[in-house]
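This week, study the protein below.
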Amino acid sequence: MLIAGTLTANFGLQKVKATISPAASDPLAFTIVGDVEGWNATVAGCTSGTPNCNPTITQFRGVTFSVLAKWGDCCTHDFAIYTKGTPPAGVDMTSPCFTTNTNGCLVRTPSITPTSSWGINFNATVPKDDFTGVGGYEYYCEFHPLSMHGKFTIYKNPDPVKAGTVNIVDVATVAFSFGATPTSPNWNAAADLNNDGKVDILDVAFDAFYFGQPI
């Protein structure tokens, strides 16, 4: 069985054109629109507390995803990713961001304006190969942290064999450890995709959902 190895962070900034559509169908390359009422507040159906407004976004450990942050209203914004659990009061746009930070800002864009959108490439390093729950990050506009605050939920990579696509070998890898816990002879930490200390139907279903998709 393949045991998941150590994964490292890979962060970057890229200047992008402001004409890219605000629609985001690809979770690995999506757009989010800045508005003082909330990220994506200009998107139809967004009201306070709805999934479209400050959406919770699912990603995977070790899989680089791209966020394009666009301007959408009257005000200046930025897009910053913080460690899980950072409250709005802990957001400080004057503090430095470090990819190795364990408490605070990991990466931020320059200011977003009507003529300047910015993208972030982000490679999550959580959750670890243990059973302490799913990983996560907070994302903010540091100018408006109270209203513009969403979350990333990070699962383990559903491609444990690292083939670049979720295929039958990945599903079989998870299935082989079905019913296992950390003390079981067939335990494989990489197969515990939701990181809850057991390989069960949720892990199989999660892997099956992404079957055939490039990761």
About this structure: Residues 1-25 have pLDDT under 50 and may be disordered. The chain has two domains: 12-155, 168-209. The chain has two helices and nine strands. Residues 168-209 form a domain with the Type 1 dockerin domain fold (CATH 1.10.1330.10).
